[in-house]
Amino acid sequence: MTPAEARGTFPALAKLVYLNAGSIGPLAVPTVEAMRAQESKGLERGRGSASAFLEVFALGIGLRRRLAALVGVPVESMVPTGSTTEGCNIVITGLRLGPDDEVVTTDAEHPGLLRPLLASGARVRQARVMGRPAAEALDAVLTEVTPSTRLVAISHVLWRNGQVLPLAEIKRATGLPLLVDGAQAVGAIPVEAKVADYYAFSGQKWLCGPEGTGGLYVADPASLQPRMQGFAAEVATDALRLAITLPPPASLAGLTAALDQLPDWGFTRAVELVGHCRALLLESGVEVRTEPGQGTLISFRLLGDPVAIEQQAEQRGVIIRSLPDGWLRASVGRWNDHDDLERLGAVVRELS
Ligand SMILES: Cc1ncc(COP(=O)(O)O)c(C=O)c1O
Asked: Which of 89, 104, 168, 254 is 20 to 30 Å from 179 at the Cα level?
């Protein structure tokens, strides 16, 4: 499928300049059709027959295999989840951290990772990465490591500015268990989850799947003593035993369909578009805090109330996001095109 054909499968893109996959990605027609078909089956034949259970079981097994392949890990180490937040919570609670333990994270983490860390009872040390060059991130993390550090827990791509953290270097230099929040990475940039011990990600963002979907890679399930358990703990012996509840059948079907549609040109196209977006914003005279060559989020600032700017942009058909620290964010996806970016540039110039 060509980029133009793929774009045509996302109805919202016909009307909007959609630049907010960092919150939630656009939906494609085949994804929604797969969800509807799954719901219709439940409607028509009842949900609890033996054949229906078997079918949903097969759907879950298939999706688990697909998620594992997507991030380059063995299927036995993949847990389908409802979100990145759920994956982070499974790992952090399962590590049974206490007041004598320290966790190193950064000052740029989303609540989906930060809140479970703060709730863990461990002392949380935040490496200062915001407002500093990407090249200093490794040192910033290492500065916070002490003999009491039990876990390094960081994003792959920072949600505030798109910066990519050097996961392999951090793992190599610390040798510590590494939990990665991959919410802004999986589907946006190439990911090999094996770089970490635990890697959590979302289905509804860059994979364009349904809400309430995600995955968690766990290299060694025995390293966790789960605090929340359910049916999966009864029947599974590998990482699947960590699953708390599985996504509903329609979501399993929708995410499977979304994965079927991932094009092989997606990452290269996104790199080109995000570079173009950054250049356009700079040409428009806007302050941009995202360095070149990072992820697919570009963070920029205009004078004025960011929430009002977000709303004014929406009135002009451009969907961007205001961030809690007063900056704005454009999420540039493989489904966008140069026209979208020109329209963003025009709105930014108008609202500047
Ligand atoms: C870095 C990061 N982590 C976690 C999340 C939360 O993702 P989910 O809703 O899948 O838990 C987000 C969502 O915005 C995010 O940007």
From this structure: 254
